[in-house]
Request: fold
Amino acid sequence: MLEVTKTLELHLVNPNTHKERKLRETRDAYQQALQVAFDADCTTQSAANDVVVEYDLSGYAKNALKQYVPQLCGGSYDADELHDDHPVTFTNEGPKLDHQPQNHYEWYVKIPHHGDYHLWVPAAANPEHRPWLEALHAGDAEMGECRLLERDSKWYLHVTATRDVDTRSASDTNERTPVGVDLGDAALATVCHRDERGTPTAPDIYSDEASQVRHLRKTYFTATRRLQRRESERIAQTYGDRLWERIDHIIHRVSRAVVDRAQQVDHPVLVLENLQYIREQMDYGAFMNRRLHGWAFATLHAQIQYKAEEAGIPVATVNPRNTSKECHVCGETGTRPQQATFRCTNDECRVGEYQADVNAALNIADRYRIGESQPQTDQDSGQKTAGDDSATDGASLTGPQDSHSEDEPRPATSGTYAS
Reply:
């Protein structure tokens, strides 16, 4: 196993006036404490503590200062002077990451202010960092030091994350067996590959899990809306959080099962659809769009990616155009008389009717086989950039929320895309 460390950037989205003031107070107090401790030439943690203890900062920022100042004063850095603008550094126990896929901004971070007073702020992530955020949220990666900084009048939190990655993925890509994964509405995921003779193997179809998620989402929107009408906001929030925790658990279980399936194949590569093209093609009418947007394709996609990487399995993506419409045997464009059924229109093809999601999974795998793919880590995942101030995947269901109190869980409210 190889230990890999990466710095993740989270853009704190439009903090209100109160939170903006608190962030500036934290930054100013931190920089004052740093400057005074540096001027006092605090070469030990004890000496630094005697200085920073007087400042209105959280213990996480003070502990970071106690470690940092001695390094500046004759330690590993031996600095002659300070830069004008140091980021606020917190030890890893301070900031927290939360995932609320039902909200417009699905990622939230807790910024320590002072004492037991904290700020919960919605955050937009760099699309390339999503698998790491999923790993942090699931406890499969360890959070390290965090830094709060302001840049061009915008606030960012840089999070250091570390996780173990299997290094057994050194085989030539051309020798790999593509395992196709189709993400969909009727089945949360469908996994299939061809054996050494080119014959499709028995697929794994996660349709029961899809039904469970649909039921939980419907329950969430119905129950929370009813509770909100009765002005039971706190009960609605708690109940909604529990339902989404169950959805998260299902998605984690399915992503783990997909990777486990790939591990049973010699020299596998997991092949998924490129999310950018998936979102461009989501135009099936208002009802279907509401359902599809609630599936959190990017969440499942990211979890499969990071768990595959941990297992030493590479991940690639292909353009999903017509993967569900073309026959995996002859390539003819067919029809979908039912959601789960593909019918080939080529009279000479040996395929009459076929399970539609399995047909798509095989097409996805075959597109990798003929070279129509990119490594997932080398391409845009199709989500919006951190500077776009919007949710970053198809799970976005509500408009921006910023009305919760500072040390309470994030809101879970229905909105524009509620079904």
Q: What stands out?
A: The chain has a mean pLDDT of 81. The domain at 173-388 is CATH 3.30.420.140 (Nucleotidyltransferase; domain 5).
